[in-house]
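Field: COMPLEX_INPUT
Field: COMPONENT_COUNT = two
Field: RESIDUE_TOTAL = 504
Field: MODE = joint
Values follow.
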Amino acid sequence: MNPDLLLSRLTVVLCRPSHPGNIGAAARAMKTMGLSKLVLVQPRSFPDPEADARATGAVDVLNSAVVTESLAEALSGKVLAVALSARQRDIGPVVSSPRTMVRQMLVAAEAGEVALVFGNESVGLSNAEIQLCQAAITIPTNPEFSSLNLGSAVQLLCYECRMAAYDDAPPVSNQGVTQFASVPATHDEVEGLYAHLECVMTETGFFNPAQPGRLLPKLRRLFGRVQLERDEINILRGILAATQAPTRHGRH
Amino acid sequence: MNPDLLLSRLTVVLCRPSHPGNIGAAARAMKTMGLSKLVLVQPRSFPDPEADARATGAVDVLNSAVVTESLAEALSGKVLAVALSARQRDIGPVVSSPRTMVRQMLVAAEAGEVALVFGNESVGLSNAEIQLCQAAITIPTNPEFSSLNLGSAVQLLCYECRMAAYDDAPPVSNQGVTQFASVPATHDEVEGLYAHLECVMTETGFFNPAQPGRLLPKLRRLFGRVQLERDEINILRGILAATQAPTRHGRH
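Field: COMPLEX_OUTPUT
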């Protein structure tokens, strides 16, 4: 299925968010990764100017957000609901890593609508809410500091969804892209550079062909790594040629 | 090399950040993923109470942050500097995806200190700054809305670094984890359930062994998927047994 269509079937559900700024940040995070459906369960304050401010250009996601009284209402019609949980619960679905679970989410999205459920900033999801979900994700944070911002958590999950929907290789925006100035150098052009370099080094006495040592292989290793372009070869050979010119010590 | 040691060799460099809140958000994002070294190049305002507020428990990262006058100064001693860039530049290193580049960063971190360089919120990195870096990353955002928050960009990159340092399987915090109540059921226990179920269904007339159809395979498919635990088998067989008891219609 088309990756953008798959992403359009993912809904982000925020349960009882306390800070309107985080709602805006979530909307912005979603839109940067191609998600657009936002459901808010009992938000403390919404709509709110702070949410609009933090959403920047993603106010359209806020404008189309749906507010519900309960998570059950938010999950109506979904074929899969995945909870974000900071830890494995005694009761509740088994917890997977984001990268593992987003693939299952996209498989489910082939068949219908999927929800990604985030809890309140301070207390997370209740046990009753977790049990409405069929699967759970824990983001593998630093065990000594696992205090991930809500907007950041939404950002990470939406990013993983986008990566998975595009098989780890989403296209990069072409807006404002200017192509590299030059084409790759051919083998002959690169060999021409080496020959020219060896000639100059020999003329200047830096290189002694009778005692070559490892200088030439080292230079090949260096320039071999950088995948030279034609223009770059021309520049380098221009520099070399200039050192050979009789007027190289300045204009007369 | 130890993953935490590798992560400790990564420095986040923020060039000319305008909003102190983003500095705090970056510090928090870093610490959740096990990074701790922050360098600020000409921050508009630092230290700043807004940075402290957004950092929450990561104020230690802010307190140990280094402020420099130039990116060149910030990169002193680094074996690799990787720029975050919203687009491929005409001049500048070739752009890779985060997932590809963080692996190269960790290889470099085996040998020394590595910098991850982020530009200003509005204008990004200058061409001169980009050219101080040997590699670049573009986060593959939605081409129609690529406006990623600075803190979110730091969060995504630090997350990818942590995932890569731990070979995609960082340990999850065990704080507050309670183990599942029961051990997995054995084959014999699961078969005992199926036999019990078949018996009850036959007794009640729901299942006719002379015309079995696909009922039994369907039940096996259902329960086979859920990897039943011993306690769950006991619960299910308890329910079945109760339907068979002579007092099942109520207490006498």
